[in-house]
Design brief:
By secondary structure, the protein is an all-alpha fold. It has a domain at about 60-180 and about 260-355. It has 14 helices and no strands. The chain has helices at about 40, 70-85, 85-90, 90-110, 115-120, 130-165, 170-175, 180-205, 210-220, 220-240, 245-255, 260-295, 300-340, 345-355. The longest helix has about 45 residues, at about 300-340. It is globular, with a radius of gyration of 24 Å. The protein starts with about 40 loop residues before the first helix and ends with a helix.
């Protein structure tokens, strides 16, 4: 059974979870290469490869080697994924970010009375909330939820196709992902409800006077927060690629991540620390320019212009980091978990071999 991308995509592997259960004693992942039967046993001419058996070249058909990934791979491969399908992995999130910024720009234009007063005294520059202003803010919030789900979803097929060495257009990626956006929005709602429940539990505990205990629990929950971020990324990949429901994605992500929690926490912590330092360095340049202009310019006009430019640049950098890089990372973690637990590298290699023979 193939992934339902279209009739021309018969070589794409099935991303559905296997129906069988791994028996105790079986390896967690497949060996580096399959054991081929002798040509005579396969009933073919000497030197021929049996039909449907992956060859050596199929074990890295795209930017990613089909094997369990290491920390160095997770640091390196997201950039290779971006290069493999940049129109989808980079262009899709940037387009969604632009739509979000324009929507909020319209809402803020209705909300702000005087731009100069708002810039100097933000608490005094707002207009009373009118009907059209409230409607614009609500629409901007809903569009932000939609574009966030779309940006995250678009990255997944870009990475999955790049693993097989295939390029995919933004239109094709959109045709794959847009049916999954309702399930992603439902997933967001479930995550928000869980977050509200956890927050209320901490608030109720602090209301009893156990402030020190709450602080200790918050510190102890840091690994759990990191694991929850990875959990959400793996679940989103499963929703898009396996076409499962939002509720089923919780169990699917838990099954894949079972026994790998500390490895995932460590990998994600190191990667996020590196990405945070790089993003901070990039944002530091416009921040320095903004500080220089603020200290040297006597008029407000240049300061407003530089501030707007700084906000745009920072938003674009955050979009690339949050959606393109981290989205690719979570998809790669999802594939790595399937390779380790389900031997999915063999399915990918066979699909790559079938694509090469077309």
């Amino acid at each position: 059974m193939t992934e339902r991308y279209g009739p021309e995509d018969a070589s794409v592997p099935s991303w559905e979870p296997p129906s069988g259960v791994v028996q105790p004693g079986q390896p967690q992942y497949s060996p580096a290469a399959p054991n081929y039967p002798p040509p005579s046993a396969a009933g073919s001419a000497p030197g021929a490869v049996p039909q449907g058996v992956p060859t050596f070249r199929s074990w890295q058909p795209g930017f990613m080697p089909l094997r369990p990934l290491s920390l160095g791979d997770f640091l390196n491969l997201p950039m290779k994924a971006l290069n493999a399908n940049r129109a989808v992995i980079l262009g899709g999130p940037l387009l969604c970010t632009i739509v979000t910024m324009l929507t909020w720009g319209v809402a803020l234009a209705l909300l702000v009375v005087d731009e100069r007063d708002w810039f100097l005294y933000p608490s005094l520059g707002y207009s009373p909330l009118r009907g059209e202003t409230i409607l614009a803010l609500v629409v901007a919030f809903l569009i932000t939820l939609f574009t966030d789900a779309a940006a995250r979803a678009l990255v997944v097929p870009g990475v999955s196709r790049g693993i097989l060495g295939e390029r995919i257009t933004l239109g094709k990626a959109w045709s794959i992902t847009y049916p999954r956006i309702p399930q992603m929005l439902l997933f967001y709602l479930l995550i928000a409800l869980i977050g509200i429940g956890v927050g209320l539990a901490f608030w109720a505990l602090s209301a009893t006077g156990a402030v020190a205990l709450v602080g200790l629990l918050v510190f102890a929950c840091i690994p759990g927060v990191l694991l929850a971020i990875v959990f959400v990324g793996v679940a989103v990949s499963a929703i898009v690629l396996e076409r499962i429901s939002a509720t089923a994605s919780f169990g699917r992500a838990f099954t894949l991540m079972k026994g790998s929690s500390w490895r995932l926490i460590g990998n994600f912590f190191v990667i996020y620390l590196v990405v945070w330092m790089i993003a901070g360095a990039i944002n530091g340049v416009p921040q320095a320019i903004l500080t220089t202009v603020a200290g040297s310019s006597p008029s407000l006009g240049p300061l407003v212009g530089v501030t707007i430019a700084f906000v745009v640049i920072s938003t674009v950098v955050q979009s690339v980091v949050q959606y393109s890089f981290l989205g690719s990372l979570f998809t790669l973690m999802y594939v790595d978990l399937r390779i380790r637990t389900e031997g999915f590298d063999i399915d990918l290699a066979r699909a790559a071999e079938a694509a090469a023979r077309r």
